[in-house]
Amino acid sequence: MAKYILKRILYLFLTLFIIASITFFLMKMLPGTPFSNQNRLSPDQLAIVKAQYGLDQPIFIQYIRYIGGLFQGNLGTSFQFNNEPVTQLIGQRLAPSMQIGAQAMVLGTILGILLGAVAAIRKNSWVDTLATFVSILGISIPSFVLAVLLQFYLAYKWHIYPVALWDNFQSSVLPTIALAALPLGNVARFMRTEMVDVLSSDYIELAKSKGNSEWQVVIKHALRNSLIPIVTIIGPMAVSTMTGSMVVENIFSIPGIGEQFVKSITTNDYPTIMGLTIFYSFLLILVFLVVDILYVLIDPRIRLGNGGND
Amino acid sequence: MDKILEVKDLHVNFATYNGTVQAIRGVNFDLSAGETLAIVGESGSGKSITVRSILQLLAKNADINKGTILYHGEDLLKKSKKEMDNIRGNKISMIFQDPMTSLDPTMTIGKQVAEPLLIHNKVSKKEALGRAEEVLRLVGIPNPKERMNDYPHQFSGGQRQRIVIAIAIVDYPEILIADEPTTALDVTVQAQIIDLLKELQQKIGTAIIFITHDLGVVAGIADRVAVMYAGKFVEYGSVDEVFYNPQHPYTWGLLDSMPTLDTSEDDHLNSIPGTPPNLLDPPKGDAFAPRNEYAMQIDLEEQPPFFKISKTHYAATWLLHPDAPKVTPPKGIQKRFEKFKKLGDSK
């Protein structure tokens, strides 16, 4: 297993390299330049500025330079945002996004698992109908609509939470709920389907015949077996919760990373776009690795590496 | 002998979209301590439902709408959920048909075998696992100590059925219900499992209710046999009585469709024509009548009561009525009658 994980980490860097290369050339195809006041610059001034950022070189040279920097852990400096190094820029903005994303994932997944499980156990009852209703709402209402609704009622009208602020845990509650709706709905739906299947399987009947009560059967046998497909959807969802939070971050004025990504694209801030893309890719690949490890922990039939022979 | 289980007038219905299926229509039997009762019949005759009713492990749309199931004189159907949990896996346990799907794929077999002990007895985890290891050795799992930590997928089908049996017997049940425990296994493994069950029965003295559609298996393990058809017993008696002195035309059909050592290459195996009745709308008379070449007018109009053949042997067919005409059973059955006479003479 350790060997397998090491191999995967090696692939991780290889994948990142490829992604960095593709993004680099794609980005250069973006219309516009990094200079917002280009019209007012004389050709000479423009040449000086371009030379300063190395933009006067042929694209291929720029590429070599950038990749060279990457290997030294240097993501370059931002054109905007006070010429800050991109690593520092991401570092500062990462914490709020990660906090909200992680809180939303944990909340959504746990509630989704519970809701789905209860719906499956009480199949065709009012709980089941309620669960279906909640998960449809969670999936179909866009997070920003929910965010605005939460903001209006819980913050503006009833003053329970701050409207748009970023300081303590209190201020993270509303964005967390807004972002948790989608994972909650998805997980609940998958959990219900899988649990209904598992509950009708032979080993559950055997577990009942041992004298387990209905809830013991669920906790000891059904839950773990139902989690396998949940793990599959959690990976990509975790990433989309963290990247998809841009609009929600904007609504609640959270100094997060998503907001910055949008800004950097609209201003052709090449080093920041590159840095964030590489960072998101890294996150995604890492999540997939974690998902694969989770599989092994949950399902003993799955073995990593060697085509399942070890 | 002590009767530990008495099932009286059991009726089970299933609510379906098409209506109410009367799956069990009045089943009576009893079980004495330490004996083996086999229930045979074709698929859909209600064998599984009969025994699952005892443990109340029926689908949610099932309704045991009539009858009593007395276990040591107490009606199991009147027990609370919790009282039933205390009986399952402890006093009465069950072996399931398909060993490939009966074990929890994500739990080590040691834990799965130890589970009933932890549910029903105040034992430590260590004690329970120790006992599980002992029982795994008893059912013939090699190196049980090392294999305790393996998962079901690491065992063969035959071994998995041994593990399922280990789970069923780990708490020394008084009654063991075996629901077609050999059907999913190949023939050589079947024989091993039957031998194992017999051996375990002697060691722990449990009574067994053995369900099968394989008459060959019955002869090897049962003391008594009940033949079931369309939700009712049609004939029951000792193994010798049912095998060599069968009285119900359905039993004749079953026995005649089974090859014996006397069957030569030129003989052809008989089959019973037709299909079982639809229990959504069970026939008024004998359910077997439409498939029965010996059927009389009364078979279509009225259900036959049980006629007594001996103290232990009963069959529900109008052919046994004193006024019924004498019929000649199939050749294969006549041969069996001759054998039965010899058995009687030698006794």
From TrEMBL, chain A:
UniProt xrefs under CDD domains: TM_PBP2
**InterPro entries found in the cross-reference section:** BPD_transp_1_N (IPR045621), MetI-like (IPR000515), MetI-like_sf (IPR035906)
The UniProt keyword set, sorted, is:
Cell membrane, Membrane, Transmembrane, Transmembrane helix, Transport
Determine the domain of life of the protein's source.
Bacteria
Residue stretches making up the ABC transmembrane type-1 domain: 94-295
A family per Pfam = BPD_transp_1
Question: Where is this gene product found?
Answer: Cell membrane
Bilayer disposition of the protein: Multi-pass membrane protein
Q: Which Gene3D superfamilies match?
A: MetI-like (1.10.3720.10)
- Transmembrane region(s): 9-27, 100-121, 133-153, 173-191, 227-248, 278-298
What family, per the record? Belongs to the binding-protein-dependent transport system permease family.
Q: Which NCBIfam families match?
A: Opp3B
- Please identify the protein, giving its name as recorded: Oligopeptide ABC transporter permease
Q: Which organism is it from?
A: Companilactobacillus keshanensis
UniProtKB/TrEMBL annotation, chain B:
Identify the residues that the record assigns to the ABC transporter domain, covering every copy: 5-255
Domain of life from the UniProt record: Bacteria
Name the SMART domains for this protein. Answer: AAA
Keyword line: ATP-binding, Cell membrane, Membrane, Nucleotide-binding, Transport
Supply the InterPro entries for this chain. Answer: AAA+_ATPase, ABC_Ni/Peptide_Import, ABC_transporter-like_ATP-bd, ABC_transporter-like_CS, Oligopep_ABC_C, P-loop_NTPase
Its main localization is membrane
Q: Where in the cell is it found?
A: Cell membrane
**Molecular function (GO) terms listed?**
ATP binding
Name of the protein in question: ABC transporter ATP-binding protein
What is the originating organism of this protein? Companilactobacillus keshanensis
